[in-house]
Amino acid sequence: MTAADTSSLAWWGARRLRYNIALAVAGILAFICYVTVCWTLLPRVLNPSEIPSVTVFTTLFQGIGYLLMMGVANLFYNLGPLSERVVRPANVDRYRTNCYRLGFWFSVLLPFSIPALLTMLALFYPGYWKHRA
What we know:
Helices cover 77% and strands 0% of the residues. By secondary structure, the chain is an all-alpha fold. The protein has one domain.
């Protein structure tokens, strides 16, 4: 391993804890958004028996699933230092900062895609659930 490789791993490693904390916070907030959508918007378009229930079991199940997805996100986090070796940017600091920010915000915003999709369907396509098989 060269000094540049060690420097790259150290730079990315120093930011991993912040990344994981942000993922955990995003997961909790996205779940709160999901529950809010289920309790406020979905009753307008679904029968009460069709609304997803939120129980201790479903919360634990989704929490464990989210922890597994955080593990997958951490595997993808390793693409940062790997991409440096492949791309070999002229301005390493700017490259690292841009890659980190793009990956960070994509990873933080991704958990909100489900509540956002449910919100969009409930508000703009309420007939979606009536036409499903």
